[in-house]
Structures are given as structure tokens and as C-alpha cells.
């Protein structure tokens, strides 16, 4: 699967919820997420622009691999995700084969659905408010049109700047390095 995702800093969750509702977006769920990112013993994921994480939500646990970004316009990349039973056991396996936990990212996420877009309002510990809009495509689909559609939706919601191509983990790392 190819995930086409764009995130932008927003001023207010409440204002954005009003805009989403007036557009016709439907709130689908709210959940707490904890992501444990790992560093590979073989390659430097910061250099290759890849990510490996274990995500725990209110009801599920997943291992996710995210490949390098495919272009410089959006955070478009291959994503492979697998449901697992235990974050602790997966973490133990990763650690035993040489992977090291790099950072934990915690957030509260409110999901909305609008047409073929999944929209989330993200309250990430240590960061200002963000909104992500994404579309999932098959590996053979052309992602450039999807990217354009996402930016058009942001514009309809009144957002024309504050876009980020970096992950929340990278944003938190940057913040930590500034102090």
C-alpha cells in the first residue's frame, strides 16, 4: 500500500472541527496512540528516511514499516502494517535482534472521514496542534493526483501554510535539539 499523507500545523482543534463538520466530514472515532520507534542495527533510518514502529491504540497493536518518501511534495511512501497481539513481545523480539528503541510518541487522535480522505486532528505530547489528511492507494496507483487532492482539501479548510513532511518523531527530535 502507498500512503499519501500531508500534515499541517493548525491553530485550534475546536475551529478545525467546526470547519470539518461544515464541510460534511463525519467524526469516526477518537483514540489514544503510543508509537515506539526503533532504530535498525543495519541501516540508519534517519538517513534512509524509513521507519519501524510498534503502535498501541485503545483496542489494537500493530507493527508498521514505512519506506522512504517517494517525492518532496508530500509524505508519500510505502507502508506495510501487521496486527499483533503484544507490543511487549514484539519489542523484545526487535531488541533481541539488535533493534533499539529510538523514541516514543504519544498522541490523542480524532478521526474524520470525508469522501476518500481520512483526516485526523492530532494532539501530540510536546507539540502544537496538527491535522493530517491521507489517502491510501495500491502500489500501482499514481499518487501525484492524490497529493493534489489533499492540498485542495486543506485549502477548502482554510489552510495554505504550516505544512510538514517530517514525522512527529522527527518534529520532537528537532524540538529537543533546539534546547
Write the layout of secondary structure elements.
Elements: E1 2-9, H1 13-23, E2 26-39, H2 45-48, E3 51-56, E4 61-66, E5 75-83, H3 87-96, E6 100-114, E7 117-124, E8 130-137, H4 143-156, E9 163-164, H5 168-178
Antiparallel strand pairs: 1-5, 1-8, 1-9, 2-3, 2-6, 3-4, 4-5, 6-7, 7-8
Q: What report would you give on this structure?
A:
It is a single chain. The protein is of the alpha+beta class. Helix content is 28%, strand content 42%. It has one domain: Hypothetical Protein Pfu-838710-001. It comes from Methanobrevibacter thaueri. This is Class IV adenylate cyclase.
Uncertain stretches of 5 or more adjacent residues: none
User: What is the count of DSSP helices, taking H or I runs of 4+ residues?
Assistant: 5
Largest sheet: 8 strands, antiparallel, barrel
Task: Report the count of strand segments.
Answer: 9
Instruction: Give the amount of beta strand, in percent.
Output: 35-45%
Strand order of the largest sheet: 1-5-4-3-2-6-7-8
Order of helices and strands: EHEHEEEHEEEHEH
Number of separate structural domains: 1
Please state the overall shape, judged from the principal axes of the Cα atoms. globular
Question: What structural class do you assign from the helix and strand content?
Answer: alpha+beta
CATH fold assignment: Hypothetical Protein Pfu-838710-001
What's the name of the CATH homologous superfamily? Hypothetical Protein Pfu-838710-001
Helical fraction: 25-40%
CATH architecture: Beta Barrel
Distance between the termini: 38 Å
Which radius of gyration do the C-alpha atoms yield?
A: 16 Å
Q: Assign the CATH class.
A: Mainly Beta
What's the rounded overall pLDDT mean? 93
